[in-house]
Design a protein that fits this description.
The protein has a domain of 197 residues: NAD(P)-binding Rossmann-like Domain (Rossmann fold, 3-Layer(aba) Sandwich). It is built from 11 helices and 12 strands. The strands form 3 sheets. It has a 7-stranded parallel beta sheet, sandwiched between helices. Strands 7-9-11 form a 3-stranded mixed beta sheet. Helix 5 links the parallel strand 5 and strand 6. Helix 4 packs parallel to helix 5.
Length: 299
């Protein structure tokens, strides 16, 4: 039995599709935890066991993890004004960590971030909090693999209107700083591989780095080529970034965390892992633009 949290999100929904295709041949049962089962397609609901509720709730995870061999763990987007980043990550995870032990769950795969071991890891906002969450899960004694990810290519979908209307996308990093990027479909594929082949033991990280490092200028060039129109990068100051987040009603803890994370990315947060055939994931930024961004921008 594999339990999938956040099965309607960008990563979880892709993971569920993969597992639905591959699990029958391996005689694997699938269970999902979802707040609203109506958000799952009818065909999916007919093929999985559904536990309704939040996976931050002790009673819900107690029901969901009974009989489970493996769990895919992903913390959902935070409420706009949480008391702290610890509450968003470790606080949300504590009930599940207890349930892993109670129910003898053998393997857990979690979505986390690059940065462990870098000089800026201790002051990187959401990344620092996610690494602490990894340590919490690992402390339970479960076999654990943290998928250590850089920035998601799919984050650009938040800027579709600006790309479509003005030919502009923004970020806070230097225009020529090259860094890894990953497509969420590749994160899902990495998670599926670990969940289906549970021969691994102990705890550790599995970096998912994408096939190449790119700068914002590189991304602008590729988007311009794929979309057939000019797209340029505009660097946003951290002060303007902070003001924009606060203007959307996001609380101080989250705002400071985002600012600290973005500052740390510009200071090399994602540079600590070497790309190898094992850490590189396949989807190029050009392929992602063709398959994902272009259809949305042109819709």
């Amino acid at each position: 039995m594999i339990v999938i949290t956040a099965p309607t999100g960008q990563i979880g929904s892709r993971l569920l599709d993969i597992l639905l295709n591959e699990a029958p041949a391996r005689d694997e049962e699938l269970r999902v935890i979802v707040r609203d089962p109506g958000n799952l397609p009818d065909a999916v609901r007919a093929r999985v066991d559904v536990v309704t509720g939040s996976h931050g709730d002790a009673e819900v995870v107690d029901r969901a993890f009974a009989g489970a061999d493996a769990v895919f763990w992903l913390v959902p987007p935070a409420a706009p004004q949480p008391p702290s980043l610890d509450a968003v990550y470790s606080g949300f995870t504590r009930a599940a960590a207890k349930a892993f032990t109670t129910h003898g769950v053998g393997h857990v795969v979690g979505v986390s971030a690059l940065g462990r071991g870098t000089p800026v890891a201790g002051r990187a906002g959401q990344v620092t909090a996610s690494l602490a969450m990894d340590d919490l899960i690992a402390s339970t004694g479960v076999a654990y693999r943290a998928l250590a990810n850089p920035t998601f290519m799919d984050n650009l979908l938040r800027q579709v209107a600006s790309i479509h209307d003005d030919g502009v996308f923004t970020d806070t990093v230097a225009a020529d700083r090259k860094a890894p990027m990953v497509a969420t479909q590749d994160i899902a594929q990495a998670a599926a591989g670990l969940l289906l082949d549970r021969s691994w033991t102990g705890t550790g990280e599995v970096p998912v780095l994408g096939p190449e490092d790119l700068s914002a200028n590189d991304m602008a060039r590729i988007m311009s080529d794929v979309l057939g129109r000019p797209v340029r990068y505009e660097r946003q100051s951290l002060d303007d970034f902070r003001a924009a987040l606060a203007g959307r009603g996001i609380g101080d803890a989250l705002v400071q965390g985002y600012v600290d994370m973005m500052r740390s990315k510009d200071d090399g947060l994602d540079d600590g892992v070497r790309r190898t055939p094992r850490t590189a994931s396949p989807t190029t930024f050009r392929e992602w633009c063709e398959e994902v961004l272009k259809p949305v921008v042109r819709a």
